[in-house]
Specification:
alpha+beta; Beta Polymerase, domain 2; 27 helices; EC 2.7.6.5; TGS-like; RelA_SpoT; transferase; GTP diphosphokinase activity
């Protein structure tokens, strides 16, 4: 670390130098700063540190508080001359962040990391210097929360996504990084009034979508509530003001209601000899607003804004108190949740019940032990509660499992926005709890399907699932799961993910694995198709793919801007490179035809087997089927698109000889292909059933039916049916024409 002071600055006095030497290391990573040899500005007055010192003194040893003060001195000197937009010295911001964490009673490295969290980005201090002075642990924390201020991105959206990715990946190494980040965001939200309105709204929306859900996912309830309140106030100031005024106007009556209900609960506990603390509160403004939005209610219609929390000494007492409360006030059916038996994903435990209150208003009651209350308030931060005796192992384990899941998502590849999308899905607070065949409880987000469950169990099970049983009944894979469902997945080694699954999966893990599998398949299929196309083009010019030497590939790779022959073959298969042009480059001595393109040998045609996958697409406009005369057209990004020879959509493409490929159906083509037929029938009872029965008797399945409006005595009915070839279609059409009620049958194209 190097400061260049003006000539009038003095060296630290001997007393100041002694102050920077703690008597004994308070933490194994603490090292006394080597500051006496440097010329530094006068250190800031200790009064700036007083507020933080007061909180730290409640749970830290004196030498640790002194170590935190020395960190403050170091940070203040590093930020010397820097001011926030409000005009106050910049060091006030890191101090405030540290105090937020101190109120959660985090350990000394967390406090030091908070005080120094901006020095790498905003000053000349390096990570190595921080590691030398404060230890590797503190340096890693500071580096983990450093913003990407010096990196340039194409769009602001991409920059935000990249920054978010870095924060989440840093969590996988030390989850205290995100605690510092949340505290940093909270203080920025508290002091955001000096910013322009557009920036305030952007930051507030990001806070509601990302940071508040993260705080909830980690169980840090006070930070989550304040983030939501501040973001709501900046994002919708008029709505926040109106709700605030409405709550203030009715607060006198509400306060009396809370007092009377709390007194009744406390009296009942005394009668039963149960010792416990009863807390009454009102729901916060954003929570009330969410309920108004979700249920389309006015403020006056939101009645259950009273909530009570009962804290007792043991789990058994929790259930005893639940019975007492249900005897005192009648419970509302379906509004009881047992988070003690089945904790939330962030380790939260409590009994929740909603009752009919004495004044006709519903009231919510939460019953928990002291340990559960500590986890509920501090969440994963409870793991670092100083000398807490018993750490929050459940919350810590749950949080680390979620962070590891995020790391797995990032390793699947994809851009930052795709990663951000997956993470936002996983931040939804509503959970569904289902059982595996062995009775294990699994937590999934609301809206999760059988496919999400399969991937949650194991990636291989998700990749090979073909069916699902829910509560011993076979159900479609897209079935939404509900609390308490028993789920079993049926797999087959030959099965693979379906692109259609992306339309209904709800978890980021399922989406990332499906995309990765499809991407790998696409590359393999494109490479195989590229080989076939290039071999065909080379044969038309008198060569073969097997005869191409490695030096020939290396010679042409720079021309097509690819790094390997495999990439070039994939580009050909996906239509991003033309096989005739590549063949001409590989065999430059061949004679060219008109337009510089080699003459094509019509004796070589590409055989369509129906199993090429993504590299070959059958056009949806004309639905070609085996037996139809067909033409193939090379389309960038889609490979070869096959049309019938008389499709009206290809007239313009016929002029582009460099883009169409001679194709024909392979003699061993297999599979079923969709085709559209239109019938005109007499309007009569049961006619649709008769047509469908006849189509089924001919061995075909109906994919879609469209019934036109009645025109006099006749109605048009269009079917999309699956056929194996042209002869199969002819049999179906002959059978339909044989019915007396059918006046016309025709195949539709275009």
């Amino acid at each position: 670390m190097h400061f260049i002071p003006p000539a009038s600055e003095n060296r630290l006095s001997s007393s100041d130098a002694a102050l920077l030497q703690p008597p004994e290391p308070a933490h194994p990573d603490w090292h006394a700063p080597l500051l006496p040899d440097l010329q530094l500005p006068d250190p800031p007055g200790p009064q700036a540190f007083d507020a933080l010192r007061e909180v730290l003194g409640q749970y830290m040893e004196p030498d640790e508080v002194e170590a935190a003060y020395l960190t403050f001195v170091y940070g203040a000197m590093a930020h010397q001359g820097q001011n926030r937009r409000s005009g106050e010295p910049y060091i006030h911001h890191p101090l405030a962040v540290a105090r937020i964490l101190a109120e959660l009673r985090l350990d000394l490295p967390s406090i030091q990391g908070a005080i120094l969290h901006d020095v790498i980005e905003d000053t000349g201090v390096s990570k190595e210097e921080l590691a030398r002075v404060f230890g590797q642990s503190v340096a890693d924390l500071v580096d983990g929360v450093t913003k990407l201020g010096k990196v340039h991105f194409e769009t602001s959206e991409e920059a935000q996504a990249e920054n978010f990715r870095k924060m989440l990946l840093a969590m996988s190494k030390d989850i205290r990084v995100v605690l510092i980040k949340l505290a940093d965001r909270l203080h920025n939200m508290r002091t955001m009034g000096v910013m322009i309105s557009e920036k305030r709204r952007r930051i507030s929306r990001e806070t509601l979508e990302i940071y508040a859900p993260i705080a909830q996912r980690l169980g840090i309830n006070p930070i989550r509530i304040e983030l939501e309140e501040l973001a709501f106030a900046h994002l919708y100031p008029k709505r926040w003001h109106a709700l605030s005024e409405a709550i203030r106007a009715s607060r006198g009556n509400r306060k009396e209601v809370v007092t009377r209900i709390r007194a009744a609960i406390e009296e009942r506990l005394r009668q039963e000899g149960i010792s416990g603390e009863v807390l009454g509160r009102e729901k916060h403004i954003y929570s009330i607003y969410q309920k108004m939005q979700k249920k389309s209610l006015s403020f006056s219609a939101v009645s259950d804004i009273y909530a009570f929390r009962i804290i007792v000494d043991s789990v058994d007492t929790c259930y005893r108190v639940l019975g007492l409360i249900h005897n005192l006030y009648k419970p509302i059916p379906g509004r009881f949740k047992d988070y003690i038996a089945i904790p939330k994903a962030n380790g939260y435990q409590s009994l929740h019940t909603v009752l009919f209150g004495p004044f006709g208003h519903p009231i919510e009651v939460q019953i928990r032990t002291e340990d559960m209350h500590r986890v509920a308030e501090a969440g994963v931060a409870a793991h670092w509660l100083y000398k807490s005796g018993e750490s929050s192992s459940r919350a810590q384990a749950q949080a680390r499992a979620w962070v590891q899941h995020l790391l797995e998502l990032q390793q699947k590849g994809g851009d930052s926005r795709e990663f951000l999308e997956s993470v936002k899905m996983d931040l939804f607070p509503d959970q569904v709890y289902v059982f595996t065949p062995k009775g294990k409880i699994m937590s999934l987000p609301q809206g999760a399907t059988a496919v999400d469950f399969a991937y949650a169990v194991h990636t291989d099970i998700g990749n090979h699932c073909i069916a699902a049983k829910v509560n011993d009944q076979f159900v479609p894979l897209r079935t939404l799961l509900k609390n308490g469902d028993h789920v079993e997945i049926i797999t087959a080694q030959s099965a693979s993910p379906n692109p259609g699954w992306l339309d209904f999966v709800a978890t980021g893990k399922a989406r990332a694995n499906i995309r990765m599998h499809l991407k790998n398949i696409q590359h393999a299929e494109a490479e195989a198709m590229g080989k076939r196309l290039l071999d065909k083009a080379l044969r038309s010019m008198g060569g073969t793919l097997e005869a191409v030497q490695e030096q020939d590939w290396q010679r042409i790779l720079p021309t097509f801007r690819v790094g390997s022959a495999t990439e070039l073959l994939e580009a050909i298969g996906m239509g991003n490179a033309y096989p005739l042009v590549v063949a001409h480059s590989l065999l430059p001595e061949q004679v060219e035809g008109e337009g510089g393109v080699p003459e094509r040998d019509k004796t070589f045609s590409l055989s369509i087997r129906g199993t090429e996958g993504m590299a070959v697409t059958l056009a949806r406009c004309c639905h070609p089927i085996p037996g139809d005369p067909i033409l193939g057209f090379v389309t960038a990004g889609r490979g070869i698109v096959v049309h019938t020879h008389d499709c009206p959509n290809i007239q313009e493409w016929r002029k582009r000889r460099d883009k169409w490929v001679d194709v024909q159906w392979d003699a061993k083509v297999s599979g079923e292909y969709p085709v559209t037929i239109r019938t005109v029938v007499e309007h009569a009872r049961g006619v649709l059933a008769r047509l469908a029965t006849l189509i089924a008797e001919e061995g075909s399945n109906i994919d879609h039916v469209d019934i036109e409006e009645r025109d006099g005595l006749y109605t048009g009915i269009t079917f999309t049916v699956d056929v194996t070839n042209r002869q199969h279609l002819a049999r179906i059409m002959r059978a339909l024409r044989s019915l007396p009620v059918v006046s016309r049958v025709q195949r539709l194209k275009g």
